[in-house]
Structure of DMSO/TMAO reductase YedYZ molybdopterin-dependent catalytic subunit:
Amino acid sequence: MTIEQFSTKGRLADVGEGITGDELQLAARNHGIPLEALRYDLTPPGLHYVLVHYDIPLTNAFDWRLTVNGCVEQPIDFGLTELRAMGRQTVRVTLECAGNGRANLHPRPISQPWLMEAVGTAEWTGVPLAALLEAAGVLPEAVDVVFTGADHGVERGIEQDYQRGLSVAEALESNALVAWEMNGLPLPPQHGYPLRLIVPGWYGMASVKWLRSIELIDKPFTGYQNAEAYRIRTEAGEPGVAVTRIEPRALLIPPGHPDFMTRHRFVPAGEVTLQGRAWSGWAPVDRVELSTNAGATWQDAELDASSNEDLAWRPFSFTWQATPGEHVLTVRAHDKSGRVQPIEAPWNRGGFANNTAQRLTVLVQ
Amino acid sequence: MTIEQFSTKGRLADVGEGITGDELQLAARNHGIPLEALRYDLTPPGLHYVLVHYDIPLTNAFDWRLTVNGCVEQPIDFGLTELRAMGRQTVRVTLECAGNGRANLHPRPISQPWLMEAVGTAEWTGVPLAALLEAAGVLPEAVDVVFTGADHGVERGIEQDYQRGLSVAEALESNALVAWEMNGLPLPPQHGYPLRLIVPGWYGMASVKWLRSIELIDKPFTGYQNAEAYRIRTEAGEPGVAVTRIEPRALLIPPGHPDFMTRHRFVPAGEVTLQGRAWSGWAPVDRVELSTNAGATWQDAELDASSNEDLAWRPFSFTWQATPGEHVLTVRAHDKSGRVQPIEAPWNRGGFANNTAQRLTVLVQ
């Protein structure tokens, strides 16, 4: 067996090719939110989506050090105690994986096979990233900020620590947080214990877990996760466009009760309150449309107040007079930047940012 | 669309048929333990395996009632406060899903497609089931005890609340617990909040979540989950044998670092400490064998003390002199009842209790 067999190149599924064993291994490790858990404004522990590129590293809060170095006046390193002394801020943030929706694309890019459930909302507590950068003193020649986690592995033939870069402007203006608590408790191992970055509004790949280093560099960062992996491309080899903020999406809590195997839904006839959540990383959601006839006609759902309008999902509801027979429910979000969730999102080779509208088949009895 | 399309019959995958969309939906909702999390003696929240047949129900501890009725001297119902007043016992238990290993079978039964990761160990706190049965007074004619959860759905065409039965003897002798805490906190929603049964040593299907009723009946229970679903059969339609206790299994913590997509492992040459966990629901594990040459030769691993020898997994370790090249690691558990984990477990139609030995491919560099 060769290194190429150990670490395969990216590929697209053949026509009609079922989910592969490699994809299933990832689906068995990583998990999404069961859609009925959209009922909780704050996602309970263990129901928030998780994606781990390599292994969850074995870490320890007691001797953990976070270094800030590179193009700074004064390199500093921080332990947890020092970070806690710098202040404490809690924000409620909806995070979504950039690969959410990938397994519904045709052809299907072979990678973590998310359907639509790679989302969750948590309260993260930590110190603003800007405060750490200010403490170190960012030099004028700094261009990008590189965040390095403690997880280590090989991806498409390249051995690496997980690393992502932001521009200095993005790092300062994104209200990013260096967090040590999730929902009021120390971070769980799979969410970055003891320290992670949270970049509100951005897909999850920016929120580097098990954060151990912040380096300021004087040229654009060209690491694997920025320059190779997380890019919107239609052809292999083209530079593509960086994946950044979360595209608008609405998801319904499936009504009625499910069939175990197909997850199809059975709903009693009569008045049904349909509920769900909608979010966007670009701007607050200001409209959700819902269709009970597979998109033939649409009506506005009622929007409830968000618990954190800028950063967290917004609940919506809709009263449906359900008549016997099969119905396809679908829903789409609009945000204040003018973005509208598409009925079918454009395809891309990496399977990123696929916010194609959810379709939910129900049998009304 | 008909009810048969909404709730399909059980079937086997065709030769070469990839994982189906239905299976992927289940894999995206339910999740296993990432194998590196076998390093924790007690599985942290969110890393313990979860299987939910229908939806996680919306429940409330404040007005929750558990009824004990049927063939008893005195039907009783309990709120959480009354249960807490009856005593408090904490046990460390390893739970495994009966379908663990299903997706590795040939032909593959189409259902929740576990590979080998549907396991976890937690500390459960509650009151012994025997104390509740004693309080109600089991009448001599009682044969079976039926446990009903609040989750509701359709399975293979049959609408049902999730229900499982035990014989009165099994209920009394299994040291079963009616639990309200997991690892010292109220049960998470997906693990049965506010109340669940824990039947140590049995596959997870016996540990009914969202427990609301315990009924004693004067004949054997013939409900779907006992008589139809959880049975070892080689032919459709035969009565089969009930799935009960957990068969022995050992799992290695994958050494070195992984490739993202294939999960193959890269290991530096030299001395490597291989570690893992082994368990059995029949009797304590008393031996673990390990092979670093795909089963050609075997050596005994060193067993550490279990934190709860009867009910929880037992750690093992093995020092390996890793030489460059490809190696297949495999491992198997023995227990004090004389059961030995097979290199390849016999096939069955439901895909239950497949404790075929783990095989882990590593490239030593």
